[in-house]
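W.,

You were right to be curious about this one. When I first looked at the sequence I had no strong expectations either way, so I just let the prediction run and decided to look at it fresh. Below is the sequence, 231 residues in total, followed by the output.
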Amino acid sequence: MNKFKKNELINIKGVIIGIILFLLYYFSAYLQLIPIFLFNIKTITGSTQVLLSLFSNTIILIILIIIFRKQLIHEWKIFKEKFLENIDTGIKYWIIGLLIMMVSNTILTFILNMGQATNEQKVQQLISYLPWIMVINAGIIAPCVEEIIFRKCYKNAFPNKWLFIGLSSLVFGSLHVITSMTSLMDLLFIIPYGSLGAAFAIMYQKTDTIYTSMLMHMLHNTILIILSIIT
């Protein structure tokens, strides 16, 4: 249950927790040093990179579940009680976000001749190494982590729905671009990523359960990965 006032702009405690968890997520790659030292890994191949990413994402997810366990249990009850309504809301806003994402990607890729987003290129490369492990990692675990980090943390930190939706989508979109950008023009890819992030934020706001956006995020990623595997 959201215990913060709807007209409150910022919840300081939520902001502090959000910043700490965001930094943990942002620097989660350092967790990969654990298996590297433990198993004395000398060479990082493409397949090894996928497995290391799976390890760090799993550790982060476990930490997030422990921290938000009470809220997650409560929101699971909400999700089950209005299952069909939540699914209907999720699908509706996912389709809207997907359409905006596709249109903006088409403009950037074919009209502005920018090519594919660098982040997307890296994901496609990882899929080629261990495709079905990537279904688990990027299709299931990563969406759960990202929804808790970018939706739950932000909703707790910013009770005002417009501030929550705006900041959540902006940071979500930016992080998918800035960490792998090769030129300033790449910043335009924040639009397609951010539009999908906004769709996830809106469906969470509408249903008041993180599992709606989490499920749609998993569905989105898994479909794209499977399409990449079979084509």
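Here's what jumped out at me. The chain has a mean pLDDT of 93. And, maybe more interesting for your project: The radius of gyration is 18 Å.

Coffee later to discuss?

I.
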